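Task: sequence design from structure.
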């Protein structure tokens, strides 16, 4: 199972996530990786720790209704050749992805599906907490090509689905790759919730499931892989030294 490192970014700084309670996030300090709140240095250390060329970036400014942190995103893409950035920026409509791609000057082949608009380097994450209605879900993932290229995050907090667009109940719209986001376990040390992952994986042959929230160490990584996860988004276990160089999993 792949580990995909995560950075939460607010006002140009990397912050530590805790149970999805964004108002409580504070600038990163005390990381076992030697990382601090400066985004490029932190990204380099996270990518090295996971031997990854994929980084998940949560743009908290955009997720909370502000403007995307375009300058920081552009700097990361310029400074890290070969990086694929999975960007969760509260996208509600395809036009927002297009505008960001243009602001970043990301190339796009004429006639390519909109889900391809930010390639190479940038891959938008459609978050169920951000999509406002069923029409937005349909516009984000309109056809097989878009669903093959896109990422959909199915977000929940405990038993509450964060899903104004009804994404959880529309498996016909689901792309090939899905993120199962368990916000109350992010940065908690409580361990991953694998029961739902097992059920979803069994019910959706051919889908690629990416877990998020609660991974503590190699034993959890092994259990997650056995439950059907092909990858897991991770930050706290890296900064606390429970996963990373010299650790299995």
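Answer:
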């Amino acid at each position: 199972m792949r580990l995909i490192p995560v950075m939460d970014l607010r006002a140009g700084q990397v912050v530590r996530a805790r149970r999805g309670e964004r108002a409580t996030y504070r600038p990163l300090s005390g990381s076992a990786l030697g990382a601090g709140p400066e985004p490029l240095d932190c990204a380099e250390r996270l990518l090295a720790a996971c031997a990854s060329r994929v980084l998940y970036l949560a743009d908290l400014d955009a997720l909370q209704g502000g403007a995307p942190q375009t300058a920081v995103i552009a700097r990361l893409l310029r400074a890290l050749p070969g990086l694929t950035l999975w960007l969760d920026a509260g996208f509600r409509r395809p036009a927002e992805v297009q505008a960001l791609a243009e602001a970043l000057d990301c190339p796009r082949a004429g006639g390519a599906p909109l889900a391809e608009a930010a390639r190479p380097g940038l891959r938008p994450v459609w978050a169920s907490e951000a999509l406002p209605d069923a029409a937005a879900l349909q516009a984000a993932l309109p056809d097989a090509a878009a669903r093959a290229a896109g990422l959909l995050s199915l977000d929940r907090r405990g038993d509450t689905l964060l899903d104004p667009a009804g994404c959880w109940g529309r498996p016909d719209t689901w792309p090939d790759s899905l993120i199962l986001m368990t916000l109350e376990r992010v940065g908690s040390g409580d361990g991953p919730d694998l029961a739902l992952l097992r059920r979803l994986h069994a019910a959706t042959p051919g889908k690629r499931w990416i877990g998020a929230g609660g991974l503590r160490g190699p034993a959890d990584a092994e259990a997650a892989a056995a439950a059907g996860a092909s990858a897991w988004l991770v930050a706290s276990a890296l900064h606390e030294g429970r996963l990373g160089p010299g650790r299995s999993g």
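The chain has a mean pLDDT of 88.
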